[in-house]
């Protein structure tokens, strides 16, 4: 690894306490009274069907959305009202949201540029991330000229550039095809272990959640149904919904007959 | 399946041909022909007469005033247009719909009326006119009034081009900039504006062309003082009214040249954007 001024932050423990959010007055809450603790350095998967409030909760953690009630703490510090810019989080958007007018390297450098870091530090960090993301040689490319999987890595590199204490990923593999998806998620898990970061990964794919997460939180219509380790969830789903959600996806997967989904019936969560 | 794919391009070949010919024909008659007439008319008495016409001191004065008007009106419109489009695209506030309609107002009213409004506002017989004149602020029948009228008439171009581009771009890219640690100001300059660069330049090109060529509004506030408040279009009209047709057409070539430069800049930008997208 390239020698860098040591600015790596320690991973932050995330505390979510009674957080609620409704988008219109009197409307059904997108997130309803969710309380959840994520120990520092762990990888949590936020699992739930479409519309269950996963993205909203993630955006509340990022400071892109502000809760109507409740508190968010990073390492015991209340950050509920702190704007996105000052939270020290990396965010990978579902659509990647890369800056189209910039090159791959310029995208990765962006968080450092706006912080007015010295030029040589930026160059070194970008180089380091290109290697880490296994996209060396793409630095000069336009982001419109890379594949979906590569764009995903660029988005991840940009999020990691300023050494965030918290990494938030919104369905990072949603737009990718099955093979790339499976390969990338194993790689992401290894990456998470190498980095000093607390990660929250949103997914509606329970196989994905069970396969790579330390903790799985199941959301249903804005409510937290269950938060436990994959092993515990597989052993005791603890609610009819969780049970049904896991088994319908399983049954659905069998019907598609792609084969890979069959694994999850015997998924043996490692951690 | 393959048959279906071939037929659409196969069958209407004649239609395509006719449509293309029609488009080129209309373009030729409406745009090409007038330009040809202007150039031919300007050169009717030879190159020397042409050069004399465009280097005439009154022509040079008119050109200078026109360039001054463009140099002030266009930047002012960029600032106002960007601010208006940005506010309209990013925020939902009461009166938003009314403001969008208001931006189009200069297009909706006749330029002559627009000019008249400034005469009524700032002229010698208006409420504040005498006070302004007493303090040495000449607006009507002075370059200031011409610039004001031009700013007003060209106001919609930048805002109108920019607004759809900003709306289409959405918030995600800006949110990405914010979580990357950018301030609102950095986000605007480094993300919002570069994303809308093409639309901005298109608006600037249109505003420039109109600012240089505006006749109606400027004609009312100008007072046609030769060498002082004559812009190129007004100067052309004076020459024309004096039966100096080749002189009028010679000066007109200057406006045509200005328009071509603006177009060329747009083409260059579009080509650049197309290369980026590829
Ligand atoms: N900006 C918004 N305005 C209004 N409603 C929203 C907005 N964002 C999300 N919602 C609503 O909140 C609920 C949860 O959405 P979301 O968090 O995107 O779910 P998920 O990511 O789990 O699919 C949905 O009912 C959605 O329609
Ligand atoms: Mg979502």
Give a description of the structure.
The complex is a heterodimer of chains A (271) and B (278). The N terminus and C terminus of chain A are likely disordered. With 271 residues, chain A is of the alpha/beta class. Chain A has a six-stranded mixed beta sheet, sandwiched between helices. Chain A has eight helices and ten strands. Chain B is mainly α and 278 residues long. Chain B has two domains: 31 residues; 232 residues, MetI-like (MetI-like fold, Orthogonal Bundle), CATH 1.10.3720.10. Chain B has 15 helices and no strands. Chains A and B meet through strand 6 and helix 2 of A and helix 10 and helix 11 of B. The complex binds adenosine-5'-diphosphate and magnesium ion (MG). Magnesium ion (MG) binds next to helix 1 of chain A. Adenosine-5'-diphosphate (ADP) binds next to helix 1 of chain A.
